Amino acid sequence: MGMVGGGPGALIGPIHRIAAELDREIVLVAGAFSSDAKRSIAGGAAYAIEPERAYPSLAAMLTAERGREDGIEMVAIASPNHHHLGAARAALEAGVAVMCDKPLTATLDEARDLERLVRAAGLPFGVTYTYSGYPLVREARARVAAGALGAIRKVVVEYPQGWLAGKAEGKQAAWRIDPAMAGSGGCIADIGVHAFHLAEFVAGLKVTRLLADLAAVVPGRVLDDDCQLLLRFENGARGVLLASQISVGERNGLRLRVYGEHGGLDWQQEQPNRLWLYRADGGTELIQAGDASLGADAVAASRTPGGHPEGYLEAFANLYRDFAGLVRGEKALLLPGIEAGVRGMMLIDAAVRASRDEAGWIDFGQSGSGS
Amino acid sequence: MGMVGGGPGALIGPIHRIAAELDREIVLVAGAFSSDAKRSIAGGAAYAIEPERAYPSLAAMLTAERGREDGIEMVAIASPNHHHLGAARAALEAGVAVMCDKPLTATLDEARDLERLVRAAGLPFGVTYTYSGYPLVREARARVAAGALGAIRKVVVEYPQGWLAGKAEGKQAAWRIDPAMAGSGGCIADIGVHAFHLAEFVAGLKVTRLLADLAAVVPGRVLDDDCQLLLRFENGARGVLLASQISVGERNGLRLRVYGEHGGLDWQQEQPNRLWLYRADGGTELIQAGDASLGADAVAASRTPGGHPEGYLEAFANLYRDFAGLVRGEKALLLPGIEAGVRGMMLIDAAVRASRDEAGWIDFGQSGSGS
Amino acid sequence: MGMVGGGPGALIGPIHRIAAELDREIVLVAGAFSSDAKRSIAGGAAYAIEPERAYPSLAAMLTAERGREDGIEMVAIASPNHHHLGAARAALEAGVAVMCDKPLTATLDEARDLERLVRAAGLPFGVTYTYSGYPLVREARARVAAGALGAIRKVVVEYPQGWLAGKAEGKQAAWRIDPAMAGSGGCIADIGVHAFHLAEFVAGLKVTRLLADLAAVVPGRVLDDDCQLLLRFENGARGVLLASQISVGERNGLRLRVYGEHGGLDWQQEQPNRLWLYRADGGTELIQAGDASLGADAVAASRTPGGHPEGYLEAFANLYRDFAGLVRGEKALLLPGIEAGVRGMMLIDAAVRASRDEAGWIDFGQSGSGS
Amino acid sequence: MGMVGGGPGALIGPIHRIAAELDREIVLVAGAFSSDAKRSIAGGAAYAIEPERAYPSLAAMLTAERGREDGIEMVAIASPNHHHLGAARAALEAGVAVMCDKPLTATLDEARDLERLVRAAGLPFGVTYTYSGYPLVREARARVAAGALGAIRKVVVEYPQGWLAGKAEGKQAAWRIDPAMAGSGGCIADIGVHAFHLAEFVAGLKVTRLLADLAAVVPGRVLDDDCQLLLRFENGARGVLLASQISVGERNGLRLRVYGEHGGLDWQQEQPNRLWLYRADGGTELIQAGDASLGADAVAASRTPGGHPEGYLEAFANLYRDFAGLVRGEKALLLPGIEAGVRGMMLIDAAVRASRDEAGWIDFGQSGSGS
């Protein structure tokens, strides 16, 4: 695997590396870690990449690796959003599979372009909506699909963070609040898309309409840092999506609650090995990683016995494991693909539009078929 | 004290009785527990009320008690919403103070009428927004007022329940889902007003605009049983209010989170003796009942040492204790009064209007001054 | 009801008052609140007791009340341990029923004396092991009795507090650390007996042997403030009892875990409306107050719907309600009686003996039959 | 790195592999996965090890690898306890560093032998007391060392599991309950040593005396499956160690509480990213992974930002990272070494002796100096 971005100071690059390699099916061997040749080599060194495979550009990497017998078969795109489309296009055109960080691109138009490219290329393509890799998220999805809750009536997904409540400082903050790099969405693009994907993934339903109230709360900020959305799903179910980066004290509080005709569930990312299940008779069950009652998806996504906590890196690794399966020609039904990526961009686009001038409820639009 | 309603089969009547008497400042000695004379006597017997003081009507009670040396000085109105105005009017006209259950009345017009009556009468008047009686809610309010969070930016208040997710059965459900008795709001009137009052009470801010998405989810239901609201506060802060009675598995999950410029807080009704406080430096403090750091309001609202849980009845009793103070001529700054009652009705009215035809953001309107 | 002790500055007196009166079956009308006549009147005033019924001694109270038509039928003994025997004897000899605070007496010999008096008197007698009054403790007991866990194998009961970790100050601390008033046990007598009763009550088993490690940790302290005990139950089950008043940061952390052949349970006093139930198949169920699955004892011990927390005062009130039933001639199978009181004293005695000179395992001894 | 054991069906082998490789400093390239040549190759294949480096014995591996330029520098011993000494001896004699699973050996005599070998060899040696690798365990240790709690007075460490409550089935259970493979201790050897190391590691104190109550609860079991120990530390502090494998419903509930003169702390393995800190003034602070207040050890042991849970594999990887540092000639002060390994065996030996015939308190004995 080659990495695009993830150079010195990067947050998510090392996480991609660990996640990709955790199951020994993928190895990071090359990268275009920076457009500065020296910085790219320095970035590569942090991953124990040989200098000759730490390239100053993706183009250089694709060209050089093509000439190697052990050249890369896939890239992980871990650069800021505005680079995603270009990088993915170059890789796909070179016949290299792509695991792309979220959000898919900087704009919805770019996403539509990328969707066409992916469908045309017929190469493995994944989007790292990491949270869908947690075993108990997959268990939740399976239970909903099996009818444990009955018809879904209500979905509450929230994603509070507090790290941008003050003047944002540091590299991680800088690009996320800059429209030139992040695109038209701030918080909605950075974490809103995670919440959105989680909701659709577990509920097994697509959003068809929404209403949005986005704001740039911190003085001087251009992009939204606090988002309140109301949702309507295809079956008429109603929903709420809250995402915030100004909620002081919150770390990474992604939480999903789904309520159906005769059951409910509750999952929280900061305690990921637990899933609450509510029955209409008033019973409350705590499902835990390692439980004998878990279905195949959750079991397959676990590496340790019950009571030995797995976390974010393992969830992330589950996406890479799915991806490795795709590369081997297997199906990877749970791996977020280009459609999920596009839907995330549709969310950003719709939320920004709906919020502008208090536009009220707007249609979410259609995504292509397939995944 | 005399009670209006709360007869055989009543849920809230016995709770009013316990709460009122807990501190020995008020005693339930009479009641118009039912319009059926026999049932009223039977209802009274459950409270150990002598048959002669279990009246078939409020009018009868007021008349008879006026003639007694030990006649009642106050009534607790615990009957369904559509009786509140009439009962309160009769009591006030008889010079009797009133503790009224929520929501204040069945309609906003009634609430305005009642407001005039209360102001004219100059008698003690309280509304049992019970949750504002919890010691740690009062602590939260005091900390916000003292600036612990800085300027408030965001308020998330939610109140999920699940008990009306199926076909509603029993007396408690019956009147709450009947517009003739409940008024124009269902869930928003039954529990939305609690959430709303809690938010304004702790944040120390008034809502000025809102947007609402109310639905009657259970087939055949006329009144809303699930509510999603977006809020705007007077200082520009943004908010969300969720109330639901179809969230299977939820008991009485009232929860309030408030985020400011440099702090946040989190309180949950089902663990009422705890208050989470977040600092901008990333620190998380758990404030507990009995802590040495508590302010005067929380201390005054506590009856046991730390670690000895107080609950709903004690919170309720704190409102009655405040009320007893009012009757003695003291101030009761924390007791919800007529203004808070009217604001609850404004919420119901605005939410129903805003939700109709997806009306978008609407102005909340002005409440009178004073409390 | 008349109270013995509980005068100015008392902690537990007002709690007895609220608990006794909560269900309106008992009313506090008299008291010997202090041996100083003026203080007794002042103490009575805090409970709205008429001065003439605030007596300077129990003897005076018993004499005077016997002469009244509305004289007291019972006393609550809320004075320090060394007064219990004398007070209880005087009351019983006057034909007055007794609710006695724990521990039963100051010494085991006194307890044996009191046991004889109670059995001879044939009057209602209760001991306020408050925690057995919680609805979910009673549910736990019922489930164990019904075989939900199979044969019991292990019991872990712990009761950490931290309030005596420093130099003890104030009236509450003073008598508890003084052997002249508290008796031979400190922490073991003050809270160890609660933990012990809870364990036997829920497990439905009696302790037959124990090994103890008691210490006076805080410099200068005479009585134990930290206790570690190993237990053996009559069926061979093993157990641990930890009680501590020097565990800084702990409030009132009483917790009971019971494990059987095919199930386990966990209850924690600071979240008293929850009971965890573990099944041998790995399933985890959270039982909550108000649940439809609760048995008759838990339902009878609840006053509010699910999700409306009940707490310590309500648990305490359940003991008084049981007591009121006894007075009316009903059975009160769950109310701790003289046998439970004596067993608590046997615990203190055995623990102190076992701890002295590291005596190893010692027999717990036999208590009388009946309760 | 080469692995000893961890072949087909192994639980802990794959965990060693992931942990060792997580930071890319160590790669598993060889193994003696089974004494059956075919099974060893099959075992190796599961780790993508070339057949030629999947050996039928450790001796074969050491010999062959010595002849390779890229031969292994270290082994991870992941076989049952009774193999540890022989394997470690062979490796050390071949000049190969050793990471050994716990408990160190099958008997204390073996441990003393191994201690001599390790000291003589002067090669890196580690013992995988995994839980000491958690960031917040290291934070706890640092805070205690810095005096945050004052002098330590009490340590409560517990490790309840339930997986051996029934008839033990499967390979994992089989060897653990067989004295020929496990040694003289069952539960005390399998998990008691973890709890013991955690307690000494965080408290910074050594146990000097103990009293033990070990039992084989499940009918037919020879080795203990439930352990209750009382402890005395070198400074006079008192402690309790509970370990159990018959506590139905418990997963892997390792928990440590430490109380000092003016503070307390609480850490639970199933929520490993949280550390509770209690102050003598009654304040309660929740320290979380990623907090700005964390010290250098905790920061160094973290790979993700706050709110992104790290778990058991990452904790395990922290030991391997420390080990890699040792191999590079750095110090690894937090990595459990031979002394910690021997102390674990002393615990087993002392607990078994103390429990036999209810021997009462016994001296724990001295361990060598250094680590």
From TrEMBL, chains A, B, C, D:
Return the Gene3D superfamilies for the record: Dihydrodipicolinate Reductase, domain 2, NAD(P)-binding Rossmann-like Domain
Supply the source organism for this entry.
Sphingomonas populi
Domain spans labelled GFO/IDH/MocA-like oxidoreductase: 137-265
Q: What is the lineage of its organism?
A: Bacteria, Pseudomonadati, Pseudomonadota, Alphaproteobacteria, Sphingomonadales
GO molecular function per UniProt: nucleotide binding
Indicate the segments forming the Gfo/Idh/MocA-like oxidoreductase N-terminal domain, all copies. 13-128
The name on file for this protein is Gfo/Idh/MocA family oxidoreductase
